[in-house]
Amino acid sequence: MTSEVEQPTAMSEALGYEQARDELIEVVRRLEAGGTTLEESLALWERGEELAKVCRRRLDGARARLDAALAEETGTKDEGDEGDESL
């Protein structure tokens, strides 16, 4: 039973941001449309929560990479500026 719970998470983690976002949009659309049983609605809700976490992790990772690149660029510019001041 544990593998059934872990498997969707592993599959979700393999999704790219755009794939997870698109599936999340579809989940929300189905929930808003109604016409599903309670069990189906709960399964959709759980899937939506899982997909939202995947999207958040992807966005956080992208933000960290961007921050690191900007910090590196700023550090390089600062070092270059210091050299110019000594002339």
Helix and strand topology:
Layout: H1 2-13, H2 17-33, H3 38-85
Helix pairs in contact: 2-3
Spans of at least 5 consecutive residues whose pLDDT stays below 50 are: 1-7
**Overall pLDDT score:** 84
Q: In terms of structural class, how would the helical and strand content be classed?
A: mainly alpha
Shape: rod-shaped
Helix and strand sequence = HHH
Largest sheet: none
Q: Report, as a whole number of angstroms, the end-to-end distance.
A: 70 Å
Tell me the number of strands. Answer: 0
Determine the fraction of residues in helical runs and give it as a percent range.
Answer: over 70%
Give the percentage of residues in beta strands. Answer: under 5%
Helix tally equals 3
Radius of gyration: 21 Å
3D architecture notes:
- The structure is a single chain.
- The chain has 87 residues and is an all-alpha fold.
- The chain contains 3 helices and no strands.
- The protein is rod-shaped.
- The N and C termini lie far apart (70 Å).
Short description:
This protein is an all-alpha fold. The chain has helices spanning 2-13, 17-33, 38-85. The radius of gyration is 21 Å and the shape is rod-shaped.
Q: Descriptors for this entry?
A:
0% strand, mainly alpha, single chain, 3 helices, rod-shaped, 87 residues
